[in-house]
Structure to design on (82 residues):
């Protein structure tokens, strides 16, 4: 059974699994707190298939700094490693 991480983490089991994979506390909590945390997805477009503006908006949503200076490849890299 997953440890209770308090009200700041909605899906404790997923949070622990992500931390075990080496993700930071912040990234693991952000993923575990999504409205559909723990549900299977797979419906999102690949980053390479998105426009630069779509990538920019996603980077803005997750709080990536200096995104306005990034090209498409840099935005993809930042999104994958955030």
């Amino acid at each position: 059974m997953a440890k209770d991480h308090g009200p700041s983490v909605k899906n404790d089991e997923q949070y622990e699994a992500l931390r075990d994979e080496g993700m930071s506390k912040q990234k693991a909590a952000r993923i575990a707190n999504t409205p559909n945390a723990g549900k299977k997805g797979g419906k999102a477009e690949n980053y390479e298939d998105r426009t630069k503006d779509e990538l920019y908006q996603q980077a803005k949503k997750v709080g990536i700094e200096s995104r306005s200076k990034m090209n498409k490849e840099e935005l993809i890299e930042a999104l994958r490693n955030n």
Observations:
- Residues 1-41 form one domain.
- The chain has four helices and no strands.
- The chain has two domains: 1-41, 47-81.
- Residues 18 and 28 are 6 Å apart (CA to CA).
